[in-house]
Amino acid sequence: MAYNLIAPPSSSRFSETSLRFISLSHLRTPKNLNFPLKHHRPKPSLHLSAQVSLQDPLLNAVSQDSEIPIQKEVSSSKSFIWVNPQYPKASKLMQKSYNSRYASLPQIAESLNSCAPLDDSVSGVLAVLGDKIQQHEAVVILNNMSNSETAPLVLDYFLKRLKMIRKVVLYNVTLKVCRKCKDLGKAEGLFNLMLERGVKPDNVTFSTIISCARLSSLPEKAVEWFEKMPSFGCEPDKVTCSVMIDVYGRVGNVAVALSMYDRARSEKWCLDPVTFSTLIRIYRSEGNYDGCLNLYEEMKALGVKANASVYNALLDAMGRAKRPWQAKTIYRQMVKNGVEPTWGTYAALIRAYGRARYGLDAIAVYKEMKEKGLEMSVLLYNTLLSTCVDVGFTDEAAEIFEDMKSSGTCKPDSWTYASLITINSCSGRVEAAEATLKEMLEAGFQANIFIMTSMIQCYGKAGRIDDVVRTFDQVLESGIVPDARFFGSLLNVMTQAQKNELGKLTTCIEKAHPELGYVVKLIIDEENTDGEIFRKEVGELLESIGTDVKKAYCNCLIDLCVSLNQLERACQLLDIGLALEIYTDIMSRTPTQWSLHLKSLSLGAALTALHVWMKDLSKALENGEEFPELLGINTGHGKHKFSERGLAGTFEPHLKELDAPFHEAPDKIGWFLTTKVAAITWLESRQSQEAVLEKVVIAVFTERGDRDSDTKARKQPHPNAKKSENSSEQEAVAETDGECGGGAVETYGAAVVAQTIKEMEAVVGCHSGGNKSKLAMADEVGIEQQKTLQSICYKRGLLQLLDQRKLPLETVYLNIRDSKDGWVAIKDMVVRGAPAIAIAAALSLAVEVSNLGALGGTPSDAASFLSNKLDYLVSSRPTAVNLSDAATKLKEAVHKAAATASDGQAVFQTYIEAAEIMLVDDVASNKAIGHHGASLIQKQQAASSSLSVLTHCNTGSLATAGYGTALGVIRALHEKGALGRAYCTETRPFNQGSRLTAFELVHDNIPATLVADSAAAALMKAGQVNAVVVGADRVAANGDTANKIGTYSLALSAKHHGIPFYVAAPLTSVDLSISSGEEIVIEERSAKELLHARGGLGEQVAASGISVWNPAFDVTPATIITGIITEKGVITKDGSDSFDIKSFTKEVASK
User: Fold this and answer.
1) Active site residue 361
2) N or C: more exposed end of the chain, with fewer CB within 10 A?
3) What are the extents of the domains in the chain?
4) Per residue in 871-928, pLDDT tens?
């Protein structure tokens, strides 16, 4: 039954509510009510339905097209106007009277909200309705109430006067009032009353109580009521179930929540932002940060608008994942979408930037909060101060500390003072550190072990050994228990102290750590120490301490040995560290390069390792071993934040003193390289090189008596930092690439001295003669390159991926043993290129299955295992359509096999074969693309006998299983003798073109020229380009193409110069679910790729403080694409502005 109702404009409260009715007419305000009404201008109204909503929040019920006059005060007790039925316009006037009565109902609800919760008071208000009360009138009044104390009395009033068949309707509307008021107690009491009176609850009853519990932040009660439903014969609907995803997530029942979400996706439930926010928090707690992003994308695809809660949960997840660049992107989207940042937003950003050491960004957020007048908390102040400690912002820390003290709302706590003391200690500000400690003690806080450790470091760097001893005594006297890092700091001080003061420090260590003290005494008293006893004691000591400090102790002990002129003892310690796997992968050998990796070592340990490596090289030469064409030393490129010095800068002068032919590579920061010829010549000419090395090592430590500010101790971990489950404080220090020696106790170094290519040529003995490439120079000294370049090497049970991060200087293949290795390889860009990623993922799981041995279980178990693994692999690159497409096809094959297989082994075998077929098909597909593309270009450029083709990024055999897509077209033209020259862009900022495409072109002896991205338009204008061919990361149904950033500008230039622009990609790169490029989400890469040379791997080249926009891809519209080259043929537009790819795929499928 439908009614025409309108909300009176006089009720400001009712303007926030809604009733849903089928239609709405233009009505006038009633003139005869017995309670005063306020004058308001009419408000617009909405057309509403007759069913009162029990689930949705209330909306404004005033119609936009109604014309309601200003209401006047009335005092008549009549509730409607009598109309003479004989009057010509009687029907119209009666309808007007009828509607006037309904328009007054919300006002009655308003009066009931404000009246006393007494039967007489309620009856007095409702008397205006008279004796003829309709059921829908009762529903409307209760629906508009917001007083849970009065609502039950109103319910009873109506129940006594109405003859209702379904009394549960009125009870449900009354429960809704309790939900509005978040009064779960009243709701539960009303439910019990229903049962006592014999009224059977229905689904709406339970869903209303459940949502009441949810809004009251009582998820346990919501679960309790949800699980009661079956006992009353009620089956929860989709709305209730979708609410329960959030509820189960809040109570910690993750399995049920995720299971219900999977069902929600398959059955297309309507989910709200709160549910997605909870799911994101669930994924965050499990460390599935890509899952959080996937949820966000699914949310957008479903048309659910994210609110502040969703964005804040995402920001917090990206902070925990240490992905500040993604946090930046999400925040930009939040602002762009009109969602106002909250205090929680800024807090999440500060935490995200703080964890990742994005000091400037954290400070910027802090300043924005201050500008907006948002109050800081003690925790946020401490987070900022911790960030300042991590990045060396001494002055900024002092400002923040003063702001905190003057805020009036936040008082410094012990963590605050600990940060200030730590940063002053690391900066060598002894007086400031002492003043802060004094202020802390006066504020009533006690010094803890972290603070005392910082003071030990501070005094040690200043050479004030007596103050170190005094502080040590204070620690013991105050009852503070020294920890491993405290003793590490004492060892650090010993490596810097004069020899005549070592006894004082040794006595301190012996008091609190006898085992460590004994080892130190053995080092100092070398002449009277047996070698075997020394190894035994050191081994037992290192095995007894925590993993997070083993390397720091070992580095310190080696440094101490070196400072005491005990190089052989230092070698013993290094050998012990290697045996105990404290040091791993220090030396590596591949067919093309032998390397020494010093990234996590202190200077003393690094020079000791160099000494050992040189001896090994000399022995290899004596034994006639074949040397590789390159030898390298990797020191890392990190610098100490308080001194701007790193291991590379300190190490290079010592190589010069040894006259070693290792020179810093101009495009590989932290690497010192030499050739086989130069290395052998040097090793053969060494007569007493070991003695020289010993002198150099000893000199390093004897020259360190000045204690200037450039000599910095390693950073004391922040006292407030919490260890995560997957990382230790020691690992956090190691991330700085040599800033503190990765756990070493001393930071050394001078400015890095750049070596030019000429200097390298002089050492190698090569003369380039013009603009000769490094690969050409390498050929001149005898490097043999592979004849067939492959990024993926596979045979059943074995998978190797070419590490493309090391190209073109190193050709290193990594063994992939299982899906976890595959996931990491994709995530870390060991393998890249959409087709190659998909094949690598599929084969990594095939290798895992092959190597598991005898596999049993049911077919269903096997299918479930493989499906879960494939979902995991997809999370490594969720935006790669080829990867998700391959996973979908493999899952279909697996489940199809499981339906008929006799056991799990047969399903696993099916998967392996399907993955291997994908590998074979990809190569065949790429060759087909090359054939179609070459034929097309030759046909359209018939007048040219020598074609020049420009390509962008890398789309060759390194980005696929073999041959390539866009580069495959160029290869095919070359094989046909039709290619005059290939041009490849450098593809900034990550230089895939100069590093990878140029490498492939030179490898295949294809005539090629490298051009800067910005030179492409000029090249076209000069008439040097006949066609442009690029690859694709994703192609929309209309042909809009997402590809590496810079593709769009090339297409525009080609369009302007009348040059055909082709996209070459397999049909697996086409996403028919996306209608246009506007739906493609563009990933933003790290700002470091632009701020630093070599795509973020080199030195900073941009001004500090500049903002960065660094999208990984852009979308080229179909309107400026000439054709799309696929393995099935070329898709053309046939005079249209877009491509009809769906029709093309249907046509080829029918064939």
Assistant:
1) no
2) C
3) 1-164, 386-482, 574-757, 792-920, 925-1150
4) 889 888 766 678 888 899 899 889 988 888 888 888 888 899 888 888 877 888 888 9
